[in-house]
Specification:
There is one protein chain. By secondary structure, this protein is α/β, with parallel strands linked by helices. The chain is 36% helix and 24% strand. A four-stranded mixed beta sheet has the order 2-1-3-4. The protein has a two-stranded antiparallel ribbon with strand order 5-6. α1 packs antiparallel against α4, α2 packs antiparallel against α6 and α6 packs across α7.
Length: 203
Amino acid sequence: MMTVELFVSETMAAADRQALAERLLQKLTTAPDAPESVLAKARELTHVLVHSPGTWVTGGPDPAAAPRYLVRLTVPGSWSNNSEFGGHVIPMITAAIAETDPDPGRLTRDPHCVVQIVGLREHGIGLMGRTATSTEITKLMTEEFRASGETPEAPAGFVIDPICGMTVELATAQLTLIHEGTTYGFCAPVCRKVFAEEHAISA
């Protein structure tokens, strides 16, 4: 569940804004080892908006000569508090925007693309006319995968996160649980929490 607001300091044609929004949506909801059912639900719950403000004042080079970008990414607080999430998503967003910039390398040389991750407190997101917790959002995003009974084969030394289907390296996994003699690895704290709740495990 993400809302991405991209503010661009230059006047961008509607077709270019649309293409950039679609590129960001695709980049943020693509993972080579995630089940398509989970990614499809993630796309349904992700919103990308591109704005060109009438006025934008900032220091440094003339924004008309060197376009600026400000990205506000709003997610559940449990996601934003995970340093791995920021370390993954900030370079991804910057790279997607850089692909459209006249000087793609500029966005990693100069601070002209600022990404802000805003975490919403628990119960600060509403879906289907009611508040939703990060656990409920994760269950919604992964329900089709979990109901499918699909058990992808993991490479040696890896396990499949039983909630979202992501591949996790067991030796370096920071999030694990042992249930009925089997060690499970999880890609995120919320996946571990969902598994623990569903199996009545004291986490």
